[in-house]
Amino acid sequence: MKESIAILTGGGPAPGMNTVVGSVAKVFLKHGYRVIGLHEGYSGLFNPNPRTVDIDFAYADDIFNRGGSAVIMSRFKPKDIDFAEHFNLKFFTDNHIKLLVTVGGDDTASTANRVAKFLAEKNYPIANIHVPKTIDNDLPLPDATPTFGYHSAKAQGTITGSIIYEDARTSENWFVVAAMGRSAGHLAFGIGAACHYPMIVIPEMFHKTEITIDKICKLVVSSIVKRKVMGVNHGAAMISEGVFHSLSDAEVKNSGIHFSYDDHGHPELGKISKAHIFSQLIDNMLGKLGLKVKTRPVEIGYDVRCYTPIAFDRVYCSLLGFGVYKLFSEGVTGCMVYVNAKGDVAPLYLKDIQDTVTGKIPPRLVDINSQRVHSIIDNVMHYITPADYEVAGKYLQNPEEYDFCKILNW
């Protein structure tokens, strides 16, 4: 029987998923392997009749430059009882599978290791190689290498963000925009910087003080008043959804937000509009201050996840896909494939980037102290400073309370 590989996709979509799958398929087909796409992520491995697709060249060539994922994704995370009672070992033995390729974030990578260890215990050794993805750009890849999908999502988010800013200018109002980023503010900061938003709020900015809803709202009000002082009556504030994850339980409770949680224990932020919530909270603060400014909420999230990948991600994801074969042919397993800026391929092992105590992969945060970030904060963003206190007093009784640096304890 012809040797096979299986490919599954886990977590949420990112531009370039199909490019990775198509590129992996093309290179393995070239070397005589059968390529099986396993639908529904890891849930397919615990199903006696998994949904699969045989990926031939025509299929791979058709999907490689498209957004979304032709191999259906899932956030399913197997429990120990699933391995003990429901694991479909027959799928691997009957199809003579030698490699499991997983495409996803850190949760998908961790589960891939569990699957490989389980198969080894069953005397069916199988290689597993993971391709790291996330539009959040928060996996700690070396040398600031981006995760695939980030640049494409940022590009599409920038198109939306620019249109919103033009609407603000045209109608002389303010927009509150929220962007995805569960643990880090890369996407929100990247879009906000590209659109020259006068206020960007990401969790990393609060490294010297606790994140509270009051502080977040005051940062936006600080920008609104600063722009009024400048004679500008419009603007937009970009807020990363990651600030929700850093709010204390008391803050979340007092905000009136009620979360449901996914299989990995993460709040399902996609079920609520963060922009709508903050728009209302900011409007409440503006009303109490007697400032006649209304905000409009816009959410940037699901509209960027399945965006057609830009050229950068098409090439990058192709190199990642071809890198999977290179590592496999060298006998490498239990790793993520890593491609640096020069195009060199290397294995990246979870043990080398995970926390030695918890075993979890710590998120890569925005370097808030970097010159790159401060260049945007200092030259693009607008906010109240001590030099503005006197003139800002026309709008605020205590302008020092809306001083950007004081709010953040910088």
Structural topology:
Blueprint: E1 4-9, H1 17-30, E2 34-38, E3 52-54, H2 57-63, H3 80-85, H4 89-94, E4 97-104, H5 106-121, E5 127-132, H6 150-171, E6 174-179, H7 186-194, E7 199-201, H8 213-229, E8 235-240, H9 242-246, H10 249-255, H11 274-288, E9 295-300, H12 302-305, H13 311-329, E10 335-339, E11 345-348, H14 350-353, H15 371-379, H16 389-392, H17 404-408
Helix pairs in contact: 1-2, 1-13, 6-7, 8-11
Q: How would you characterize the overall build of this protein?
A:
The protein has 410 residues and is of the alpha/beta class. It has helices at residues 17-30, 57-63, 80-85, 89-94, 106-121, 150-171, 186-194, 213-229, 242-246, 249-255, 274-288, 302-305, 311-329, 350-353, 371-379, 389-392, 404-408, and strands at 4-9, 34-38, 52-54, 97-104, 127-132, 174-179, 199-201, 235-240, 295-300, 335-339, 345-348. Strand 7, helix 8 (213-229) and strand 8 (235-240) form a beta-alpha-beta unit. It starts with a strand and ends with a helix.
Helix content bin: 40-55%
User: Main beta sheet, described?
Assistant: 7 strands, mixed
Ends: how far apart? 65 Å
CATH topology value of the largest domain: Rossmann fold
Keywords:
single chain, Rossmann fold, 410 residues, four-stranded parallel sheet, seven-stranded mixed sheet, alpha/beta
